TrEMBL record:
<dbReference type="InterPro" id="IPR036291">
    <property type="entry name" value="NAD(P)-bd_dom_sf"/>
</dbReference>
<protein>
    <submittedName>
        <fullName>YvaA protein</fullName>
        <ecNumber>1.-.-.-</ecNumber>
    </submittedName>
</protein>
<dbReference type="Pfam" id="PF01408">
    <property type="entry name" value="GFO_IDH_MocA"/>
</dbReference>
<keyword id="KW-0560">Oxidoreductase</keyword>
<dbReference type="InterPro" id="IPR055170">
    <property type="entry name" value="GFO_IDH_MocA-like_dom"/>
</dbReference>
<dbReference type="InterPro" id="IPR000683">
    <property type="entry name" value="Gfo/Idh/MocA-like_OxRdtase_N"/>
</dbReference>
<dbReference type="GO" id="GO:0016491">
    <property type="term" value="F:oxidoreductase activity"/>
</dbReference>
<feature type="domain" description="Gfo/Idh/MocA-like oxidoreductase N-terminal">
    <location>
        <begin position="4"/>
        <end position="116"/>
    </location>
</feature>
<feature type="domain" description="GFO/IDH/MocA-like oxidoreductase">
    <location>
        <begin position="155"/>
        <end position="245"/>
    </location>
</feature>
<dbReference type="GO" id="GO:0000166">
    <property type="term" value="F:nucleotide binding"/>
</dbReference>
<dbReference type="Pfam" id="PF22725">
    <property type="entry name" value="GFO_IDH_MocA_C3"/>
</dbReference>
Length: 330
């Protein structure tokens, strides 16, 4: 069954998702929503006959079955609630919602619309190389700790330095380094190790009160996970998961290009396979399978929804620990 897809947001990540959706052969883009018609039309022209809307209600009533929401973070909540009210399945870009209060309200809406499925687009945890990491972690006799790194100079950071206020670096849009980049290693940590007992965030603030980079410490019963991320510098450090003598070395916890298992006795084994050209294809295949077989795939769906909720809880706790307040929190 080919699902009719609508998208909100016309940036590069939306284009990548639509291409992945088409490559999966499970979706067909049929509608684009943009506040400006010219932006929507410029995006749609690459995908054939696609309707463009500047009215959100008309977009939701256009016959689409799945909506992908890639607007600024602070808009996800209301747009998701509206989609659920129209009985549309929702794929929302991470970070999904600003705080636990919003997530709880969305969860309540899902209970009122039991046929709707909600997904957070955390593409890396669906990739084959992440699953290889999971399998190897399960085999390791002991976990001593981990360091997960994702620090990239943002294309918007020059604008910030020039005195502008890019959406991805402002609290007004529920944004900053933690919710934009830190969410990748945080998702990985919680997927691999579960909920931490404690979480602490040492943030480097920007002049507007948002976080530009930071260090997160997740405390588990027998080990700690350190997460380093930021948008104002480039780091070339690998990520590592430490056993005792053995170690898993990951080139990038978000991109997952190469994963090496070192047994500590001089034997290095590559456990990764070539990454897909479009890293969003695996997640789009998973989402379509769940939508098309909601009963058979219910356990998988509940696991993903629980993971998303846990990430939201820890993200909220980390911001509170660092004293970062979003307007959506009030």
């Amino acid at each position: 069954m080919t699902l009719k897809l609508g998208i909100i947001g016309t940036n590069w990540i939306t284009k990548m998702l639509v291409e992945a959706a088409h490559e999966s052969q499970a979706y067909q883009l049929t509608a684009v929503y943009s506040r400006r018609a010219e932006s929507g039309e410029a995006f749609a022209k690459d995908f054939g006959e696609v309707a463009v809307y500047t009215d959100l209600a008309a977009f939701y009533e256009s016959g689409i079955e799945v909506v992908y929401i890639a607007s600024p973070n602070s808009l996800h909540y209301e747009q998701t609630l509206q989609a659920i009210a129209h009985d549309l399945h929702v794929i929302v870009e991470k970070s999904a919602f600003s705080n636990t209060k919003e997530y709880e309200a969305v969860y309540s809406a899902l209970r009122e619309h039991p046929n709707v499925r909600l997904f957070e687009a955390a593409r890396h945890v669906h990739q084959a190389n992440f699953k290889a990491i999971e399998a190897k972690v399960a085999e390791m006799a002991h976990i001593s700790g981990a360091t997960l790194v994702y620090e990239k100079y943002s294309s918007r950071f020059d604008d910030y330095l020039a005195g502008k206020e890019p959406n991805v670096l402002t609290r007004e849009f529920s944004a900053g380094a933690l919710t934009d980049l830190g969410v990748y290693p945080l998702y990985a940590a919680i997927k691999l190790f579960g909920m931490p007992k404690e979480s602490h965030y040492f943030a480097t603030p920007l002049r507007n009160g948002a976080d530009g980079r930071g260090i997160v410490i997740l405390r588990y019963a027998d080990f700690d996970v350190t997460i380093q991320f930021g948008k104002g510098a480039n780091s070339y450090l690998h990520s590592e998961i430490l056993g005792m003598r053995d170690t898993i070395v990951i080139d990038s916890i978000a991109e997952l290009g190469e994963v090496i298992y070192k047994d500590g006795a001089g034997n290095d084994t590559e456990i990764s396979t070539p990454a897909p050209a479009n890293p969003m294809v695996p997640e789009m295949q998973v989402f379509a399978a769940i939508i098309n077989d909601p009963v058979g795939q219910d356990a998988t769906y509940r696991e993903l929804l629980t993971l998303s909720q846990r990430v939201n809880i820890v993200l909220t706790n980390l911001r509170q620990d660092a004293g970062i307040i979003f307007p959506a929190d009030k």
